[in-house]
Specification:
Layout lengths: L2 H11 L2 H4 L3 H32 L6 H23 L7 H26 L1
Helix pairs in contact: 3-4, 3-5, 4-5
Amino acid sequence: MNKTQLIPVMMLAATPAVAQDNAPTAVGAGVGLLIGLAIMILVGAVVGWLAGLIVKGSGYGFWGDVLIGIGGSILAGFIFPLVGFEVGTSILASIIPAVIGAAILLLIIRTLRGKSS
């Protein structure tokens, strides 16, 4: 092969399709991440709202409730296995400890806010 015959072969090998062989996998992972974040925000909002109903008092607004719900879920995920409380795999078995964790977190936040004012 001479130099002029090699140029089309090199151009074919350097196409974007070859460079992006794993593009569908990367796009699928990105979409999965966004869906996971949307579900976490939705569940966090429900958990924060339920915790606000359990612990009476003024709410912290939508985003405050979402953050408290997500934080309570994380708190419950760490604390309950240490105590020996096993969480099941269903959505209800995941929401109940998350609500308890969010209520505990809400009580902690209100106690700290009460001491600081």
